[in-house]
Amino acid sequence: MGAIMNIARALFLGSIVVAQSGCRPIGGSAHTETAFRGEGYRLVWADEFNREGKPDASNWRYEKGFVRNDEAQWYTEENAWCANGLLVIEGRKASLPNPLYEEGSQDWRKRRKSIDYTASSIHTNGKHAWQYGRFVMRGRIDIGPGLWPAWWTLGTSGRWPANGEIDIMEYYSGKLLANVACLGPDRKAEWYSNTFNTDSLGGAAWASRFHVWRMDWDSSAIELYVDDQLLNRVELDKLVNKDGSGVNPFRQPHYLLLNLAMGGQRGGPMNATRFPNRFEVDYVRVYQKP
C-alpha cells in the first residue's frame, strides 16, 4: 500500500510541476501532457524559454571558441538569446582575428588567422543530467547549405566516444539523422545511425515549420522520433563499449546540448550559405517515470 501511495503522490506532484511550469501542449504530436502522465511519466525538468535576454544560467552553460570537427564557426555567448518564447541560436558571418592563431600550427583551431563565422552552443553539463526518461524538444531548423544544427546528449563520465553520444536531432548536407554512438573495437566511435533525406520529408516547406523531436530511453532501448515517426531504435545491450571494459555508457546520466554548427567534417561547403540563419527552440522538457 505504501508503494502505491508513493506512486500516486509522484504522479500528483508531476501534474503540479506541469501546471506551474506553464508548459504548452506538445505541438506537432499526438501526445499531450495528460497522455504522458497516463503512460506513467512526470515532468522533472523543462526550459520553456519564456524570458527575454540570455538563456537561464541555472540551466545552461556555453561552449566557446573552435570546439570540434574542424567546424567553421567560433562559438560565442552573443549568438544565443531568448525572445518571444523562443531560444534563438543564430549563425552569422564575421571578420574577427582568431585569438588562438599561431603561425605554422598543425592544430586546426590555431592555424586559422581569422574567425569567419560565429554561432552558439549551450549545454547542461554540470547543472542537469538524467539517466533514462522521455526527452522532448520543439524546434525549427534551417536546412540551408553548410548548416549543422543539433540537439544531442553526452554521458557525464568518460572521454568521447566512451561516454556515449545520442543525436536526437541532427541535420547536415540535406539529411536528418538519428544516431547513437559508443566506443568501437578500433577505439573510434561505433555508430548506430539512420538518415532521412529532407526532400522526402517535404524539403523547405517542412523545414519552415516547427517539429517535435523526442527520445524515449529506458534500461532496454533508445528510441528516437520526430513528430511521432520512429527514426531509430537501438537496444542498450548492443551499446557496451568494445574495449573489454564492460562499460555501457547509456547506463549513466547524460546531459543535453543545443548548437548550430557550420561547415567542418559534415556540414559541407559554406559558399552558398545565407546569413544570418537560425535554429529556434520553443521548449525542451524531460519526463521520467517514478
Automatic annotation (TrEMBL):
Domain of life: Bacteria
Pfam families: Glyco_hydro_16
Domain named GH16: residues: 47-290
TM region positions: none
Family: Belongs to the glycosyl hydrolase 16 family.
Identification of the protein by name: GH16 domain-containing protein
